[in-house]
Amino acid sequence: MKCFTFAGGKIAAGLEVRKDDRLGDVVFLGETGRGRRYEKIGFFRKDPAEIVNSFVTEAHPVKITVNRGADEKSFVVLAKPKDAKDQRVLVRINSYTGYVRCGSGGWKKLLGNSEALVHAYGAFGDAGRIGSWGDDLVLMAPGDAVEVHGSRSGRWVIDYSDAENAPLAMVHQDWEAKRAIDKGEDIKWA
Fold first, then answer.
1. Alpha carbons within 13 A on the beta-carbon side of 25
2. Contact 17, 46 (CB under 8 A)
3. Alpha carbon distance 102, 159 (integer Å)
4. Which among 120, 106, 141 has a CA at the least distance from the CA of 2?
5. Nearest of 156, 157, 163, 158 to residue 141 by alpha carbon
6. Distance CA 158, CA 143 (A)
């Protein structure tokens, strides 16, 4: 699966990789601190995704489950892609667009069955009482579209309608116009 990052109204290829003292290379989502949640997405030890210039451009998510039973926990790691024919993509959706009192950034499904594989968030103020923003790793399939609203401002759509191309990020109003044009009906003038 190809990997992308959405932030500030733009989408770019790849997921940024950072060094962690304990886990080594990770994709870090969210923010540390009270009222916040961070997630570190590691790499599958048997067959890790390839890192080039501190970015992962293709990966396959693998769910690892430990302590089966009452204390069961699971997490996602990134492995080398399994199936070249898999047209789904991994998109990191970071809805942080700046501080504002009572800000609330996040995303929601518009079309299809996009799914958050990993959910993290950041916040404003002590214990996150002033506002928050989401930072998720989302699995999208061809035909999926999600709406992103920024923590301070902005409303965009990530549209993955064409498996031959990368997902598109556009202002919500432009996406609605594009859909109307794509549906295109002939107008009969009197």
1. 18
2. no
3. 28
4. 141
5. 163
6. 11
**Which residue has tokens 């996602």?**
76
Per DSSP, the three-state class of 178 is helix
Q: What is the 3-state secondary structure (H, E, C) of 38-88?
A: EEEEEECCCCECCCECCEECECEEEEEEECCCCCCEEEEEEECCCCCCCCC
Token duo for residue 83: 């199936």
| Structural tokens at position 126 | 């002590």
| Residue 179, both tokens | 């859909």
**How many whole angstroms separate alpha carbon 87 and alpha carbon 80?**
15
pLDDT number for residue 4: 98
pLDDT digits (tens, 9 = 90+) for 108-143: 999 999 999 999 999 988 877 788 999 999 999 999
- pLDDT of the residue at 105: 93
- Cα distance between residue 141 and residue 87, in whole Å: 7
- Classify burial at 102, counting beta carbons within 10 Å of its beta carbon; exposed 0-12, middle 13-18, buried 19 or more: exposed
Alpha-carbon torsion (30, 33, 35, 41), positive or negative: positive
Structure tokens, 158: 């990530």
Using one digit for the tens of pLDDT, what is the confidence trace for 143-168? 999 999 999 889 999 999 888 889 99
Three-state DSSP at 2 gives: strand
